[in-house]
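I would love for you to help me understand the pair of lines that follows before we discuss the fold together.
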Amino acid sequence: MAYDQRPGTMPLGFKRSNDFAALIDFSTSLVGYTATSSLTSLVTGSVVTAMTTTIVDAAAGQINVSLTDTQTAALAAGTYGWQLDWTAPGDIQRTVLSGTVEVYP
């Protein structure tokens, strides 16, 4: 039996200088989890900016990722990567979502 542990993919997009937020519903309990997310350079893989990551409703499995208008204004228009990582109880760390981000002028 095969077991695939690769992260799911989710493309994002927003206009520079606008606030951005996305509510992600995993529909599974995230009680006891922590989460982080970031935008990354597709060229170097380095973190360009951390995203605010909030577990909105742990029991329902809802996480919000966001950037302020000041953060998006600091980004050049173009394509970036992003990823959402969580740490489950027992210190089990996983990248659960990743994808590309289009930043529009």
Notes: The chain has one domain: 10-98. The chain is about 5% helix and 55% strand. The chain has a mean pLDDT of 96.
